[in-house]
Design goal:
By secondary structure, the chain is mainly alpha-helical. It has a domain at about 1-80. It has 10 helices and no strands. Helix 8 (about 210-220) packs antiparallel against helix 9.
């Protein structure tokens, strides 16, 4: 339901943005050339143009924010599906062992690794598309690999994206997902470096809240309890009453229960 609501809000913003421009164009088209010039001059000398510019900018920012929320939820949904598939495969393997009368069926089976997680670590070539200064296609391919659980390939793809599109509007997002890909691959030191680089290089990025939370998680996995506590508390201080603050508090409570 929340995923659908974000899509609805995104479509509504686009319609409002388009409608404001079309309405103005329609009004001008109905006037003579002289009247259009006079009207444009009046607009330039009044606050109308400034207000419309501010409205358009606000709509653009809201559209960008909604797209980012949609991307985050899309990734979380795919991650949930991947975990369910892994659980199913693990259960299916256990059942087959029982049916085969295997004596080892009583032992606890190791979790099934994500598909292709042990695949070749060779670099994934990223073709720089002519006229695509932001590298949207390359970014989408790298993100798709991450959603599919092909973590090694997605890491290589995001690294290539960073090298080929350093000034892309997706650069901060790519840096965040690079950290996420390393985190789920349990390469915590590289994940920590990626998240810290995001905050240092893109201080205004909307991904910084999530990056700071993941830094706390990384320190937790590394058993650096004092650093984890400090990072998680910082999230609560910087982003009160937010989802990341709630998650940070939950992890702090877990640490407390476990005596860390």
């Amino acid at each position: 339901m929340k995923h659908t609501t974000i899509k609805y809000n995104l479509a509504l913003c686009v319609l409002l943005f388009s409608g404001s421009v079309l309405a103005e164009d329609g009004a001008l088209a109905s006037l003579s050339e002289k009247q259009r010039i006079e009207r444009l001059e009046r607009m330039m000398n009044s606050d109308v143009l400034r207000q419309q510019t501010q409205t358009i900018q606000s709509l653009r920012e809201e559209i960008a924010a909604l797209r980012e929320q949609l991307e985050q939820q899309d990734y979380e949904l795919e991650s949930m599906k991947q975990r369910q598939r892994n659980l199913y495969l693990d259960m299916d393997r256990r059942i087959n062992n029982v049916e085969a009368g295997s004596r080892s069926s009583a032992k606890i089976s190791a979790p099934v690794p994500p598909p292709n997680s042990g695949a070749s670590k060779s670099a994934v070539p990223v073709v720089v598309a002519a006229g695509d200064a932001d590298g949207q296609e390359a970014y989408s391919r790298a993100f798709a690999l991450l959603k599919e659980g092909q973590y090694e390939q997605s890491i290589a793809a995001f690294e290539h994206f960073k090298a080929n599109y350093p000034n892309s509007k997706y650069a901060d997002n790519a840096q965040y997902w690079l950290g996420e890909a390393n985190y789920v691959s349990r390469d915590y030191k590289k994940a920590l470096s990626a998240f810290q680089q995001l905050i240092a290089q893109y201080p205004q990025s909307s991904k910084n809240a999530g990056a700071r939370l993941k830094i706390g998680y990384v320190y937790f996995e590394l058993k650096n309890w004092s650093a984890a506590r400090e990072a998680l508390q910082q999230v609560i201080t910087l982003y009160p009453d937010s989802t990341v603050a709630k998650k940070a508090n939950e992890r702090l409570q877990r640490m407390k229960r476990e005596g860390h």
